[in-house]
Design brief:
This protein is mainly beta. It has one domain: Jelly Rolls (Sandwich), CATH 2.60.120. The protein has one helix spanning 3-8; strands at residues 11-15, 17-21, 25-31, 42-50, 56-61, 64-72, 74-79, 84-88, 92-96, 101-107, 113-121, 132-136, 143-146, 149-155, 167-174, 179-184, 189-196, 199-201, 204-206, 210-215, 220-226, 230-237, 246-247, 250-251. The strands form five sheets. A seven-stranded antiparallel β-sheet has the order 1-20-17-22-15-14-13, with no helix packed on it. The chain has a seven-stranded antiparallel β-sheet with strand order 2-3-4-11-6-9-12, with no helix packed on it. The chain has a four-stranded antiparallel β-sheet with strand order 5-10-7-8, with no helix packed on it. The longest helix has 6 residues, at 3-8. It is globular, with a radius of gyration of 17 Å. 36% of the residues are buried. The model is unreliable at 1-8 (pLDDT under 50).
Length: 252
């Protein structure tokens, strides 16, 4: 498939790629990788699993906002702004790198520490804003329960997390043979990423660490069916439609 055909596709099934990161850790990376650098406005997606004694020591960033959502265990964040905070299962840590920040993220539990780190690009007119940090505990994030599952809103209606780019970001649990509806407004880019189990969305069957990238050229009302008990992440956002220069820890 050539680049033009790929760009015209509304639904693209993709897989993560094992990538070396931090102090010798392997993460499952959706992007950036050689064949897929970003998915505007999203510029990094890492599914990590780290144990005590490993992690992400001090390192710099600029030009984006990051959300670390903790699925299991806990993560300790420290930065050069003076923040020193721990967030456990179901909580999130959010920083705006802006003009520049130095931070570390280290697991503190002697268990598996599993989560998703998502980077969201800043529009060019906000690249030089001051950096900032938000800590959000699990009880601060709204959870909606429905027949056969639940949805925790990490970013979106009811969440205290505020970003400079308008996105919706959710963690969904779905029981076998149950369905969940997702709505995507025209013009948005969206990601469905499977954490556990098996789901079907349209004609696509997705398993663990598989994802569907959706370019909503028109409004979408999609049904997700769980073939087994499943967990997945859903996020969508409006592209900035600006050039993205992504190099290491910087997004300029």
């Amino acid at each position: 498939m050539n680049a033009l055909q790929e760009s015209m596709k509304m639904f693209t099934k993709v897989h993560t790629q094992e990538t070396l990161e931090g102090d010798g850790l392997i993460v499952n990376r959706l992007f950036p990788i050689s064949q897929r650098m970003n998915f505007d406005p999203f510029v990094l997606w890492d599914h990590f699993d780290v144990t005590s004694g490993h992690g992400f020591p001090d390192h710099p960033h600029r030009g984006f906002e990051a959300i670390t959502y903790v699925l299991t265990g806990g993560i300790h964040h420290k930065d050069n702004l003076g923040n020193d905070a721990f967030v456990g299962e179901g909580g999130a840590q959010v920083f705006c790198a802006g003009s520049g920040i130095v931070h570390s993220e280290m697991p503190v539990e002697k268990v598996q520490n599993i989560g998703i780190q998502l980077w969201v690009n800043l529009p060019k007119n906000l690249k030089s804003i001051n950096p900032s940090y938000q800590q959000i505990l699990s009880e601060d994030l709204p959870t909606t329960r429905f027949d056969g599952g639940s949805c925790r809103t990490i970013v979106g209606e009811g969440s205290p997390i505020k970003l400079h780019t308008d996105i919706t970001y959710q963690y969904v649990r779905l029981e076998q043979n149950k369905q969940y509806q997702i709505y995507i407004n025209q013009g948005l880019n969206a990601i469905v990423y499977v954490l556990s189990g098996n789901i079907v969305l349209g004609d696509e069957a997705l398993g663990v660490s598989e994802s569907l990238l959706i370019k909503a050229n028109e409004e979408q009302n999609l049904s997700i069916l769980a073939k087994t008990n499943s967990e997945f992440m859903f996020c969508c956002g409006l592209p900035h439609h600006e050039s993205i220069y992504q190099h290491g820890p910087y997004v300029d």
